[in-house]
Amino acid sequence: MINERETKKNILVVDDSALMRRVICDIINQDGTYQVVDTCRDGLEAYEKLKKTHYAGVILDVNMPRMDGLELLEKLQQDGIRETVIMVSTLTSKDADTTLLAIERGAVDFVTKPSNIIEAKGESFKERLIRVIKAVLAGGAAKGFTPRRPAAPKKPAGPVRRKTSGDKKLVALACSTGGPKALQSVIPMLAANLDAPMVLVQHMPAGFTKSMADRLNELSHIHVKEAEDHEVLRKGTVYVAPGGKHLEVRKAADGSHFVSLNDAPAIGGLKPCANVMYESLRESGYDEITCVVLTGMGADGTKGILALREKVPVYVISQDAASCVVYGMPKSIAETGVVDEVVPLDKIAQSIMKNVGVK
């Protein structure tokens, strides 16, 4: 007879709050797939356990005494200990910065921490936590990546993969779970003089997108910023949709294009939503739009890209399954048959530059 306990995936929970440890343990243990077998009050306790025991996943708090989450990840990297780590972070700007650094140090993704006990015991936090755990642990997440500022990207070899009658091009990229980590393998590899602007939707809460954009800007040659309402899109700049806002692209009377942010309701729990971004581009004046879909759960982006290609020439690049943290969004668009290239994460930037060129 199979021992049920042995068939469940073992989880380590690390949080200095006894209440949060209990809440997280209860949520995980209620699911038939996972079980919390160990808990720790800080990074130092966790470090001692992780030197001896491997877990299917580690749920890690950001702020803790003695050794915080970031310090623990640094120790694990130094010792070559590879674990699938999901951060739990509050919504402060400081914690957002730390969480993004944690992803650089090897964490795969994060879940925002409830602000009070009522939220902690509510269905929303429970659903978010289990959804991320299931997506990440089922995906065989890659671990241990620490970005370094790359050498200046060279002009891509060979001709642009697809020529159009004009030269007005745009890159529109969408990603979700595993996206902050994946983007650090793509955006820093783009040339500063990319011959197109890029609009980017990453499913993240408000505050985190600003931290992510600022950090990507530090790591990259191309300019990266959180998008602002009504700003004109310019070549060689990446515009990140703010968390809590939908981003649309509008055409101005002079032929330029600008960002339009709106506060419409979330779509399928997503705000920003990639489908909104792609569908807005149906009325744009671009000669071709390169649509890029990276790691993420669900199917956001597929509906929008299919609607977009009815009106505007598109070139679709999707990340391959092997390099995804979660092969959901790229799988969804690939299954439609409209994808022009399926490439590993470390080739995405090169594919983008080959298609839109550099100035």
Question: Layout of helices and strands, plus pairs?
Answer:
Blueprint: H1 4-7, E1 9-14, H2 18-30, E2 34-40, H3 43-50, E3 57-61, H4 69-79, E4 85-89, H5 93-104, E5 109-112, H6 117-120, H7 123-138, E6 169-175, H8 179-183, E7 198-202, H9 208-219, E8 223-226, E9 237-240, E10 246-251, E11 257-262, H10 274-280, E12 288-293, H11 302-308, E13 314-319, H12 329-334, E14 341-343, H13 348-356
Parallel strand pairs: 1-2, 1-3, 3-4, 4-5, 6-7, 6-12, 7-9, 8-9, 12-13, 13-14
Antiparallel strand pairs: 10-11
Characterize this entry briefly.
With 359 residues, the protein is α/β, with parallel strands linked by helices. It is 32% helix and 21% strand. Helix 2 (18-30) links the parallel strand 1 (9-14) and strand 2 (34-40).
Question: If you had to describe this structure to a student in words, what would you say it looks like?
Answer:
Helix content is 32%, strand content 21%. It is of the alpha/beta class and 359 residues long. Helix 2 links the parallel strand 1 and strand 2. The radius of gyration is 21 Å and the shape is elongated. The relative contact order is 0.11.
